[in-house]
Amino acid sequence: MEAGERIKIGATLETAIWYDANVTPDPIAVSGAQIADAFKHRCETNKIKVSDPKFKILKPGDDRVPEVPGWLKKVSGVIPRLLLAEVIVLGTLEPDIPELVGDLDKKDLQRLRAVTRRQHRKTRPHEKPLSNHECDKIINAAGINVVMEQLRSTKH
User: Fold this and answer.
1) Which backbone phi and psi does 22 adopt, to 5 degrees?
2) Domain total in the chain
3) I need a labelling partner for 34 at 20 to 30 A (CA). Which of 18, 53, 72, 141 fits?
4) 80 φψ region: left (φ > 0), alpha (ψ -120 to 50), beta (else)
5) Per-10-residue mean pLDDT for the chain, 156 residues long?
6) Residue 65 CA to chain centroid, in angstroms?
């Protein structure tokens, strides 16, 4: 995946860590929760929803296992293993294009956003101003009948 490329629903995201099987006989019990939390945080930051992680313990020579890192090879008696964690992308946490506002022309959308912001300022003067995305969510939730009524009443 290239930098800036969008992650698609159904894609598999993975991370892996090397460990010594002599020292850590059950790496999922030791590191599983931390890996799951790291995935959760990273995915929330990127506004994507993922499945719970599935873990696999791999050995050198298994399919797709890279060469054992030098720092692990240098220690005598090490049994190198790779803990692989995979999640599936289930969807986004916020839709990219809101459904109703996506069908409005730019001029109507700007007018509806202005009305929404004005009403928000009146009813909640101590809150921060609404972003376009927040306005779009409110407009979508209002539904087509309210939107059409507002557009008729605000046309000049």
Assistant:
1) -70, -40
2) 2
3) 72
4) beta
5) 66 92 92 88 83 94 94 89 93 65 84 89 90 85 76 67
6) 27
Angstrom distances, CA of residue 142 to CA of 2, 34, 99, 109, 125:
38, 41, 12, 14, 21
Q: 58 phi and psi, to 5 degrees?
A: -115, 155
> Is there a single domain that holds both residue 73 and residue 107?
no
Residue with tokens 């894609």: 11
Interatomic CA distance for residues 6 and 9, integer angstroms: 10
| pLDDT (0 to 100) of residue 22 | 92
Closest by CA position to 51, among listed 14, 18, 84: 14
Task: Write the DSSP assignment of 20-80 as a string of letters.
Answer: ETTT-S-HHHHHHHHHHHHHHHHHHHTTEEEPPPEEEEE-TTSTTPPPPPHHHHTSTT--E
23 and 43 co-located in one domain: yes
29: containing domain: 12-92
Which H/E stretch holds residue 18? Answer: strand 12-20
**Cα-to-chain-centroid distance, residue 79:** 35
Domain final residue, candidates 39, 72, 92 = 92
Q: CB of 89 within 8 A of CB of 31?
A: no
